[in-house]
Amino acid sequence: MNNRSFTITLYIIAVCFFWASQYIYLPTLPTYVQMKTGNLAAVGVVLSMYGLWQVLVRLPLGIAADWLGWRKPFSMLGLALAGLGAWILATSNTVEGLALGRAIAGASAGAWVVIVVAFSALFPPEEAVRASSLIMIFNSLGRILATSIAGSLTDVGGYTLPFMVAAVLGLISAVILLPVHEPRRPAQPPNLGSIFRVLIRPDVLSPSLLSAVGQYALWTGAFGFFTVLAKQLGATSVQQSAIITIHITLAMLGSFLTSWRKLHVTVHQWVYASFILVGIGVAVAAVAPSLTILFIAPVFTGLGMGIGYPVLMGMSIVKVGNEERTIAMGLHQAIYAIGMFVGPAVSGAIADAIGLQPMFGITAVVTVALGVAGMRLYEMLSLKKISLKEIAEPM
Description:
This protein is an all-alpha fold. The protein has helices spanning 3-23, 29-37, 40-68, 72-91, 95-110, 112-120, 128-157, 161-176, 192-199, 202-232, 237-258, 267-287, 291-294, 297-317, 322-354, 356-381, 388-392. The chain has 17 helices and no strands. The mean pLDDT is 88. The protein is 81% helix and 0% strand. It has 2 domains: 1-179, MFS general substrate transporter like domains (Growth Hormone, Chain: A), CATH 1.20.1250; 193-395, Growth Hormone, Chain: A, CATH 1.20.1250.20.
């Protein structure tokens, strides 16, 4: 195995461990926080810290890594912080402590953009799509494996065991990258003018805001309060884990569908379908009388997010020049993370006031309304429709 292949292998293993550390406790996290705090509003605040800190650190981390010409320290720091955040969550008994742990986990996830760029740099430019696909496969593999065993870990060792396992996985993922040799690149001072120019472009901003709407629904539903409702309906820890595993698996299927060229569906049609499917999934949770019916919800939300996430990401950078594409991607990820923050924060407060299922009903209506209206506005602002072929290379 040559040095390049060895480095690629190390990154792949580290990525798998990293995302496993982020997701192994996610199925029971809302219930765990509710047990510690006693109300859904506090659950929403704690969960929202993950998105808030991604908003705050994603773009600055990317700029800092380019400025210093060195990505490895930021990558390793991000991986290690996943372990620290999990440990703090496991040992905290107050809202403040739990929020701190989740904030550190969010800052850790914010380093993902640096890790992706560092991994892609190991491949020639013409293999950029292959590099992205490869790292996302192991991203998903880590998440699926983690969520599939999370419930069993809880049954064996209680609610804190998945957090402790996550702490170990996070630290191991950082150690795995120690042997990686990264040549120092020339420093690239930040160009504030380029950032501002990209930020005010409607073709970048509109898809990013639409992604934020999708993330709002996701972190309210499958990655938020679906598992709390499941617990109320009598779910075991294993069944709570299954809800998120189903969502992630269907999201992988949705992403595959958008890349299947034999399906004669336009990019804009995919986006409309995405929001409608996610809305249906959240609406199912709003009316679910039993656990059996609730398990239908992540099928729709997973498929919808799997369709919408990669398409909107591609739309946000397809018309941007190569010299500004990294900035556009950083802005896209920072903007959609707003939905990850606002979703659980607002929905937790609403659920605490009127109940979980009425909150899901409101979320479903808001998601479809904003998604469809936002996509319609994007079409009005666009000079032409975008084809799947155009977004394939950026994605």
